[in-house]
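Hey Z.,

So I finally got round to the iron/sulfur cluster thing we talked about over coffee. Here's the setup:
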Amino acid sequence: MQAKRQIKLPEHIIEIVSDSGEGAQKAAVTFAEASAKMGNGLWTVEVIPSEIQPPPHTTGATSGNRIRLADRPVSNAGDYANLVVAFNEMALLSRIEAEVLADDVVVLIDSIWANHEDAEIRKQYKEILDGIREKGGSVYEIPMEEETLQVVEDPYRGKNMWCVGVLAFLYKRDMDLLKEIVAKTFRKKSEEVLEQNITLLERGYAWGEKNLDFQYVIDVFATDIPQVVMNGNTAIALGSIAAGFKICSMYPITPATSASHALAEVMEQFGGMIHQAEDEIAAAGVAVGANYAGVPTVTITSGPGMALKTEFQGLAAMTETPLVIVDVQRGGPSTGLPTKIEQGDLLHALYGSPGDSPKIVISPSTIEECFHIMTTARKLAEEFRAPVIVLSDANLATGQQLFNRPVLSEDSLPPPIDQNPVPAGTLPFDWDETTGLSRRLIPGQPGGTSVTTGLNHARTGKVVYDYGSNQMGHRMRSRKLAALKQALTPPRVYGDEEGDLLIVGWGSTRGAIEEAVDRARAQGHSVSALNIQFLHPLQPGLKEIFSRYRKVMTVELNYSDDWGDPLIDEETRRYSQLAIVLRAQTLVDVDCWSRVPGRPFMPVEIYRVIIAEMAKLNGQVRPQTKTDTKQEREISHGVASYR
Amino acid sequence: MQAKRQIKLPEHIIEIVSDSGEGAQKAAVTFAEASAKMGNGLWTVEVIPSEIQPPPHTTGATSGNRIRLADRPVSNAGDYANLVVAFNEMALLSRIEAEVLADDVVVLIDSIWANHEDAEIRKQYKEILDGIREKGGSVYEIPMEEETLQVVEDPYRGKNMWCVGVLAFLYKRDMDLLKEIVAKTFRKKSEEVLEQNITLLERGYAWGEKNLDFQYVIDVFATDIPQVVMNGNTAIALGSIAAGFKICSMYPITPATSASHALAEVMEQFGGMIHQAEDEIAAAGVAVGANYAGVPTVTITSGPGMALKTEFQGLAAMTETPLVIVDVQRGGPSTGLPTKIEQGDLLHALYGSPGDSPKIVISPSTIEECFHIMTTARKLAEEFRAPVIVLSDANLATGQQLFNRPVLSEDSLPPPIDQNPVPAGTLPFDWDETTGLSRRLIPGQPGGTSVTTGLNHARTGKVVYDYGSNQMGHRMRSRKLAALKQALTPPRVYGDEEGDLLIVGWGSTRGAIEEAVDRARAQGHSVSALNIQFLHPLQPGLKEIFSRYRKVMTVELNYSDDWGDPLIDEETRRYSQLAIVLRAQTLVDVDCWSRVPGRPFMPVEIYRVIIAEMAKLNGQVRPQTKTDTKQEREISHGVASYR
Amino acid sequence: MASLAIDEFVENQCGVQLHELQEYEADIPRWCKGCGDHGVLSILQRLLYNEQVNPENVVTVSGIGCSSRLPHYLKTYGFHGIHGRALPISLGVALARPDLRVITAMGDGDCFSIGAGHWVHTLRYNPRIMAIVMDNEVYALTKNQVSPTSPAGAITNTTPYGAYLKGLNPLSVILGVTNVSFLAQSATWLPVHLEDTLRKAWHHRGMAFVRILTRCPVFMPASFGADGSVFPAIFLENPEGIPVNKGILRTAPTEAHDHRDLHAAQRMALREDGAPMGLLYWNPDLPSYEEVRRSHTKELDRAALISAMNAQLDKYAVQ
Amino acid sequence: MASLAIDEFVENQCGVQLHELQEYEADIPRWCKGCGDHGVLSILQRLLYNEQVNPENVVTVSGIGCSSRLPHYLKTYGFHGIHGRALPISLGVALARPDLRVITAMGDGDCFSIGAGHWVHTLRYNPRIMAIVMDNEVYALTKNQVSPTSPAGAITNTTPYGAYLKGLNPLSVILGVTNVSFLAQSATWLPVHLEDTLRKAWHHRGMAFVRILTRCPVFMPASFGADGSVFPAIFLENPEGIPVNKGILRTAPTEAHDHRDLHAAQRMALREDGAPMGLLYWNPDLPSYEEVRRSHTKELDRAALISAMNAQLDKYAVQ
Ligand SMILES: Cc1ncc(C[n+]2csc(CCOP(=O)(O)OP(=O)(O)O)c2C)c(N)n1
Ligand SMILES: Cc1ncc(C[n+]2csc(CCOP(=O)(O)OP(=O)(O)O)c2C)c(N)n1
Ligand code: SF4
Ligand code: SF4
Ligand SMILES: [Mg+2]
Ligand SMILES: [Mg+2]
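And the result:
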């Protein structure tokens, strides 16, 4: 066999796409796991169809995964895909239409469609591939179905593993490792099924070896620190257990539910349980009751569920009951885009409850943080006797990333339920006048009988109606946030500590923002990034940090009016959510660029925003900061295609 | 009979207080109605006990009314009471403790307690009255019970009218008018009861004539414009009918419910109805359904109910269904202070719903506006196809004020339900690209069948999942607010258009703020006031207005941390709600002074804040802007009395 | 004149305009192959066609779930609301517009779980709506979580070791609610029976509640028997009820049932030996909530409204 | 040694520390004179005293309403929650701490109206809580609005011309819910019967639901007969049930009732000739939700938790 051309790369973005149900996701997960275990940096993200079983062979049916593979840790799904494995031309088309493919993309596609009996299909297949080639891409028509049929009868249950074999050759994956993973994946299936899949894997590899004349080489990186790989919802689930949560009371809602699924699988083994309540209100109520009774309990939901927990958030704030709520944000408003990412719930989290209900709001920016933030959240909730809202999102939820294996210790676990006697007459709200903090009394505790109420109350817990006590209660609950804020440190700037432009973000956009900043800095631009994890209270020092840049702007996955749009000016513009918060806090003219694409930002989109802003700052004429995707062009020109 | 000393006054503040159930409220309402009909300016406000039937003869049992009577229209309940009619000394004490009595207050109190069998009562009676006299007040011990028993057997059912008689003498009220009103009040009772009450009224008057040597003279003011007098919840009820609302779907909650009571009384006569739903979510759902079907429907609630309507607010925003929600704000957070005033729901109204759910938020500042705002709200909801939140509060709800009798015309009524045929294929969301506005299709309309969904949708109403359409939908919903804002005018400054200090408020604090500003201006201070009625979108021109003052601050009935409190500095301070909104919008360093006293502000409290701020602006040392009520002192000094 | 007569003729004939079956079809349904919801949709379309209902006078309201997608596919005015709240929205439409007809489409989670409060209370109000629940005993749209009606032991993503409780019997809950006026049960694999059931419901005066046993082959293939024909059912027989048409369930027993007797209906609802199919309970005499409420309201024209309003203001007038 | 023996004696005697009645008394109740809630409170206090329950091991949860003020007056750990949500909070306590006992105090509006969804579902879960509803057939705290249980025609502030619907019968709803395990009814003017009823409820294994007919003399004086003695009641007799103790209702009939028979209970619940007083339904064998759930959970000490956690992480480990 001739020597293969070895193409050395720092990274490659691979997409595997098929009709929903054909197994592209399983192929990708298998491939990704092997890559992770070999030691590549990795980020995977799901391509999810809109319906459970959409009509096959349509763009709407596309299901699959993107895998970003690198010779170093990566923090986001990257820009345009470099290689696509497409089970049919419509799956490929959906990715072309989504404008997520590189111009020089390498396409591996099932050759079966070239000779399909339906002339229409043959035609569109040809047109789509011609389009790829025209732009500078290359196409390999490969006999997925033909080859698969040699092993199994139903090609829909085999193509995927054959493709993994081809990729294994292309990316020089460890076949033994892959076989192990496949064996694990099919452990619940029959011996025959397992064997078929191993055979397909091997045949795919052999086919590649025989027919392809190149291989990609992506170095692995050495680390002594043991690594794990999982998605953000799994990280939240395992993190919750590590944090000592004993109960998760929830109601199903996409994209939060898979965290509860992961908990349901294992929580009973840890002496805990998940309780699927009749609705989100009840789920919050159960959590309030259980936390009041001293047992750490979390409730996990998304936008519409958050709306329903609004009243209980207020009760938790008023009764100073620890309550951790995880909000895996999705596209809003209302039912919105249930499976897609957005960062639209920040202002709800801060201000959703009527009256003054101070809450702690924090947001993980990586999958690793999804794990650890659960311990932080529990501790904050208990120490500050307050609701804590953890804002994750659909990108973190389904994305997979490698991270340092958490080192577990009993430190993260809560102390045993406090059942120590207290002197009779111990006050249930014995606020420290400076910090507002007080010791919680827990049912069963001798000497502690007292009443906890959502009405205004005194230190005794008793209902009172006068001016002074109402002002006092408000003051103490608010003061706790000041106390917390004083314990926080300013966020660390990514890049230079001063310069022209500072891009501020929160949550999952961190990786893409920092990568965009890196690129712009590599081009000589003076731009830095800032990720804010504590959103309420805000981390301190922001005004001072902002003062060191000529311009500060947020980049967020939520809605803001665009400069230049009809009727939009300084008066009328509605800013993105973090920008509103930062403007009020710092009085700095924090600008924003935000979008609701229903998918994560690509670093390149943010990069373009940076370049445009830098041009403006340098007085060059480049007024538009929009990315120029097709959708954006359509919107600006009022094209009717999305009507 | 000797001529009485005639004391001419521009205004007087009277309080009538008794144990709950003794009828002080009825006495006050009767007296106030007569005064209104005679042509005095007027504001009344209820003194409400915390429980339905608190233990009698305790401060917690105090029930009654404050009546501010003037020779000109008045806009708020004023400062310290000038005259108190107290049925017992504990009722009086509760007002002393609330620090709402003038030092030179005139007290009329039932003399029966002076000789009560219980030595403890005799003692506290004496002490309390001595205290009044010491401060400079005067006390008239009057034989309320003794006199009443001459007419009825149960003094609890008669003292009140006897007192009205005394007041009628003191304030030279028209007795014929009073008798008419009493006749109306007791129209459902027996002839005997009515006669007894008239007799009591007459005997009270006679007693005053015989025993008191002075009378107050408060001129009436002449107006050609017919006047009405009612409280804010009645104004909202009648205003809703005048606005053409046909259905009010609600769930009881204090202090909103009395608006629904008023509607329940009359709505069926107008072809409408109120529907008491099983909860606030259902109340909102019924309103969404009915509005979708073309029938103007309002839902009325307060804080905890708002929390439960959060999800439906989002649905209305997303489906562009007109939905008017009246929030009669009460003390929060959570159940808070259910009967008391607060302005704590502004941020919830703006930002409560997850995702970007643009809403229109407006707030009446007078009882007259409570009436008219309902037509504005309905029209805005329909024209802009959006949720409209009307923020009233417990002060407006129960306060009574004279205002110009509304001139009714068919203009305020909605057009008949649009059932005109539309061409097949008419789009249900045919957004104008500039304004975001579109014509609503209404069930039953020939040619208009289409689906309305809370999922992201195109102009066709159909569900779509792509970037472009999601961005477009968000843009169009947001653009409507820009379009509305461009149609609004800047708020009018009260006082000079420029100067040292601008006090900004919203809602019911308007009267007290403007009165405080008047006083400060009379003293030569350069201070003006601004009331903002459109809170979302904000009325335009604010930044420009603010730029004309050295300092801008809000005064609000909600919580903010105070300068000078432990741990509170520029970093940690949590601002009051409107201040947050204004800071983000204008980037002006808008300060705030806010409190949660559970009662309306007295103008003098705001006046003191102004004076303190002016001193600071003029470089004088007067750092504290706190009022120095007893409660405030306690809070600062950590006194335990309210524990 | 002859021409006038012809005009009149045309108007008379065409005034009763014939609606075609496809007039009830909107988007192509996006449910899975084999999903029971397809059957419900097509039978609803057939019902409206057979009844020659003007689709413009129908509002189809739903919550959120696979089943709640129905308004997108049934060509009427559709309102696809939020999870659990289809009934209040429907009640709003019914109260506002008694001239329209309302169909409420829900899933088992939508109606019996998050919507349970509205379920109980809307039954009590008894508005004229045809409420159908496509009960597949699972949360399908969110991908396989336990539902109140999931049988004990059901393996789902939130009960990976089996559901902890016996499934909720929605029939017995419904029959416990004061003012319930119509309850029937059918199944998607009994198309003729289902159409007859929905027709009966359509002509009911108040709230007609129909539970439709509906297969979700993707997430709950085991429910209702792998092969429908072995599903234990009891067909209810009554001359006034729903014609017994057993379709694939030919071996199922038939029992006489007095659907006017609430006690009998409650007993029938609790039967564990088979699912009662047909009309469980019917009270045709109970007025609908709209009827009750509108019997108290006075209709005024715009001018009369203004003067009635003025009469109200008089009560608060000064002088 | 003698001294040791004395110590032991003291410990033995005092270890079973006697709780005094006043140990169950907290704040002075702020209900109106004549309010039925007073009776419920004092009987609860008597029950806990007679049962010698340690008040520190009881959590009393309530919603919002006059009746929901109860936790302020009953000295236990009290949680005065939000309107309609007492049951989920109670379930949380019960799930978290099977070592504690839970009393849930609600009003008719709180439980049957805004809380209806939780009502149905918590009955189905069957946690070990004693749930009592002080049903005064009106919204009292908010000053006189119609409640689901208000009788038709009731004049309230939201129904000034009379309530439109027949009152909801909560008993029949409850008995329609799968897994219901205990339902009893009593009244505040039957103190002995009420205490016996609550005692029976206290010893039940799962969710013991007690509807207590409670007078609100301020807003609903007409309910339950102006003079309690003419109130139409039927006392349920069963050796295993609640002793028939008619108090003021001496002329009321007694009927034998098999509270283990759900059909019989459902029939009894629907009786219109009198309110059934006593134990309507009892299934002492149904395990509580906590029992069911905890039979699946494994208790680990802290070290074992860490290693089990590590085993989980292994599944996601790289290399
Ligand atoms: C407030 C809220 N909670 C949760 C969800 C998520 N959700 C959507 S559909 C659904 C349940 C679907 O089950 P079912 O009602 O039985 O309908 P099916 O899909 O089985 O037809 C849930 C929990 C939501 N959209 N909104
Ligand atoms: C979410 C919410 N809605 C409404 C209210 C107002 N509210 C307080 S108590 C109550 C009903 C009281 O009736 P019930 O439950 O029968 O108790 P009762 O006062 O009669 O004992 C209502 C509607 C509230 N506090 N919270
Ligand atoms: S998942 Fe189940 S319920 Fe949903 S469309 Fe598919 S078969 Fe139907
Ligand atoms: S209003 Fe009625 S329920 Fe409330 S305390 Fe008074 S009597 Fe009791
Ligand atoms: Mg279902
Ligand atoms: Mg009640």
